[in-house]
Amino acid sequence: MRRLDTIVSLCKRRGFIFPSSEIYGGLGAAYDYGPLGVELKQNVRDSWWKAMVYRHDNITGVDASILMHSGVWKASGHVDAFHDPLIDDRQSKRRYKADQLIEGHIERLRTKGRNTRADQVHERLIAALYAENLPAALHAIIMDEEIRSPDSGAFDWTDVRQFNLMFETHAGALKEASSTIYLRPETAQGIFVNFHNAKETARLKVPFGIAQVGKAFRNEIVARQFIFRMREFEQMEMQYFVRPGTQMEAYEEWRGRRLQWHVNNGIKPSRLRWHVHEKPAHYADAAVDIQYKFPIGWQEVEGIHSRTDYDLSRHEEYSGKKMEYFDPQTKERFIPYVVETSAGLDRTILMLLCEAYTEEMVKGQRRVVLRFDPAIAPIKAAVFPLVRKHGMPEVARAIADDIASTWNVFYDDRGSIGKRYRRMDEAGTPLCITVDGQTLEDGSVTIRDRDTLAQERIPKNNVFAYIADGLHK
User: In the β-sheet with 59-61, what is the strand arrangement from edge to edge?
Assistant: First the structure.
């Protein structure tokens, strides 16, 4: 597994991800996706949408506005309860989430074989999460365990304080006369407020789902670790509406489906694990995370939650509009329960980059390659003329144009063939197609496989079918 800074360096050098506003010194916890990154992101987004919407006839999609009525966030509880318990290291001036400091301490105790002590601290952490004064309870654990700052090593902490994570803005020409609104901190509420609109127009019957991919914003005080934790990020969420009493069956079903999706994208099962929430959110009766073993440790990439009827009930209460579902067969009215799948798109991108990154020695030379699953690779194939003469560029261009009608293809005629191969290896391109002298004689081309380095000759007219077969293996 590579160090995170190695991944960050590659991302900038090859055009996956750049620091935002870099020419002005950058903006913390904000990043721009470059030419390769935007293709990778689109492919992952499309993969999720096909798996969730196209392959289920009872799931439809919406794209809700980022700006919503402030009443939405009062009903959801975000205005009053969307806080993080944070603590400052006076020496380094860095800020940390108090509960994560304690969790890291517990992990270190277990690594040292002090499992009994780790269990004791873990029990205290759970009690603290349910305590009436959460900040004081977490601070007491940090003090009693003498947990030191990860950066400075100092034991010089401030008190634990709660910070609201929502970005506030104003709607109206003049701030004084405008209304306060918020950049949405999650995409789920846009689905809940459109419950009836989507259900009725798509003619859906319980159980059914509503999916959405979109931007969310959180004023993360502890925003670091590249694109793992940002203030502007993208979520892929689906809310699945079920009859009360059947939510656990749906919850278990979606747990299996969502884990398999990550495996299908090329993630090794050994680098994925379940993390059950010790204290589910107030609206949930069950919650679990899919975690991946990043260079920074085990971290969440997706959550599956059984949200009960909390959201629809709250919106019914605050809006005054009925959020019931009427079952035409049983003639019953009820507020559906909800099972949520919520994946971070940016975190998924980082996971795929970490998983794909490989260094190896080939004929005495270091080779860096991104072994993306072909279906999500930013560039599906590269086409090279061996030299820029004898009509080879024209033949190579024609092949590239044929492929480009369906997939993203890269044409390259600069530098040695070896350097061109290396550039495509770092971009994660599965196949490289070379037009050479033999092509002009018999119409065949050389296809090189990124992972095995094997080369074979096939008729140039079969290139399209060859790529299609590789994408559907």
Answer: 59-61, 208-217, 232-242, 337-344, 297-308, 286-294, 272-276
pTM for the structure as a whole: 0.85
What is the SS3 assignment for 54? helix
Count CA within 13 A, CB hemisphere, residue 306. Answer: 19
* 308 and 455 share one domain: no
Please give the distance of CA 164 from its chain centroid, rounded to a whole number. 23
Residue 116 tokens read as: 């009994």
The DSSP-derived string for 312-346 is: HHHHHHHH-----EEETTTTEEEPPEEEEEEEEHH
* Gap between the Cα atoms of 320 and 161, Å rounded: 35
Amino acid at 314: R
Q: Are residues 93 and 193 in the same domain?
A: no
Question: Apex CA 410: angle with CA 404 and CA 416, to 5°?
Answer: 145
Confidence band, pLDDT 50/70/90 cuts, at residue 2: low
Residue 143 and residue 288 in one domain: no
Task: Provide the residue type at 340 as one letter.
Answer: E
Residue 367 lies in a domain: no
Domain that holds residue 389: 379-471
Exposed / middle / buried, residue 308 (Cβ in 10 Å: 0-12, 13-18, 19+): buried
How many Cα neighbours within 13 Å face the side chain of 134? 16
Closest CA to 223 of 411, 27, 456, 426: 27
Based on the number of CB atoms within 10 Å of its own CB, is 9 exposed (0-12), middle (13-18) or buried (19 or more)? Answer: exposed
The 10s digit of each residue's pLDDT in 179-212 is 888 999 999 999 999 999 999 999 999 999 999 9
CATH of the domain at 322: 3.30.930.10
Model confidence band, residue 461 (pLDDT cutoffs 50, 70, 90): very high
Dist CA 431 CA 454 (whole Å): 10
Q: How far is Cα 69 from Cα 80, in angstroms, rounded to an integer?
A: 16
Distances (CA, A) of 339 to 89, 122, 251, 310: 39, 28, 6, 11
Residues 58 and 190 in one domain: yes
Whether residues 416 and 331 fall in one domain: no
- Number of folded domains in the chain? 3
Q: Does a structural domain hold residue 212?
A: yes
CA distance 84 to 385: 56
In a shared domain, residues 420 and 457: yes
